[in-house]
Amino acid sequence: MTILVIAEHDNASLKASTFNTIAAASKIGGDIHVLVAGQGCEAVAQAAAKIAGVAKVRLADAAIYKDQLAENLAALILANVSAYGHVLAPATAFGKNFMPRVAALLDASQVSDIVAVESADTFVRPIYAGNALATVQSPDAVKIVTVRTAAFDAAAAEGGAGVVEALGAAADCGLSKLVGREIASSSRPELGSARVVVSGGRGFGSSENYHGLLEPLADKLGAALGASRAAVDAGYAPNDYQVGQTGKVVAPELYFAIGISGAIQHLAGMKDSKIIVAINKDLDSPIFQVADYGLVGDLFDIVPKLTAAL
Predict the structure, then answer these.
(1) Residue 62, CB half-sphere, CA atoms under 13 Å: how many?
(2) pLDDT (tens digit, 9 = 90+) per residue, 17-54?
(3) CA neighbours within 13 Å on the CB side: how many for 286?
(4) CA torsion angle for 204, 210, 215, 218 (degrees, to 10)?
């Protein structure tokens, strides 16, 4: 059994999600091949070949893969899928863009957002906003699977001895083109892979309070900033800070939920954090049901004291 993992990268370096997806593939068992499709991405392929457990890297280096458009990437995968029993990709915006197309063209059922591997054909995935887990068995000849990266520890970046094999480009589908891309830049850790996350909710009352109180705390902890949907909707924080079912799913070692009541939508995105610390003046807030440490009190009093004590 051979597994094909589709690498997420920016033509210069691998994204962290690729390491988690390879770790998920290793739990299935069998040889792991990594497909690197892009332009000028030889360095990415060489880095992928060094990842522990990778037996081969298949490199498709061509202009039509520069922007990793769903149609061209799906056509490339389909042209080479006959050698594989599984195709895995991270359940990020990258994987969600092309994997459904691959599944549809193969007439297969995609198994989305898995959090555990039971066997080669059986996987566990969250349903009902993460309030229940479904065990799903796929009868398809080729299993099309996306991986919730927060559920799997990253594979080691060193230790592999994979070989890099050039792969011919498939025909350009010509069905779409990239018009532009806007990428938010920040000196803080990336929210989805941060070791520590400090999140604020509607309890902050304003954007000034959110940034004025949370940024010093995040600076002390070397943390990424997050927010509840209520805080984002109120304009306290930008949309890409949102943690939750319709935002980003995180599983850091330490998660601060400050001024967040703990709506189901938010819990779906952060409840897999290793240690959860909640600060809220309402003792009955649902966030305390999932928190490892809870502090009942006024965040405007507690957060500055906590920051000063660090």
Answers:
(1) 16
(2) 999 999 999 999 999 999 999 999 999 999 999 999 99
(3) 9
(4) 50
Q: Contact, 259 vs 278, CB < 8 A?
A: no
Order of all β-strands in the sheet with 116-119: 116-119, 122-127, 132-137
The token duo for 308 is 């000063």
CA distance 135 to 15: 28
Could you list the beta-strand ranges (E) of the chain. Answer: 2-6, 31-38, 54-61, 86-90, 110-114, 116-119, 122-127, 132-137, 143-147, 163-166, 196-200, 224-227, 254-258, 275-280, 293-296
In this structure, the chain runs to a length of 310
E-only strand ranges, 173-289? 196-200, 224-227, 254-258, 275-280
**Cβ atoms of 142 and 108 closer than 8 Å:** yes
Measured CA to CA, the distance from residue 14 to residue 19 in angstroms comes to: 8
What single letter denotes the amino acid at residue 222? G
Q: Tokens 């799906």, residue? A: 74
Q: pTM value?
A: 0.82
CB 8 within 8 A of CB 18: yes
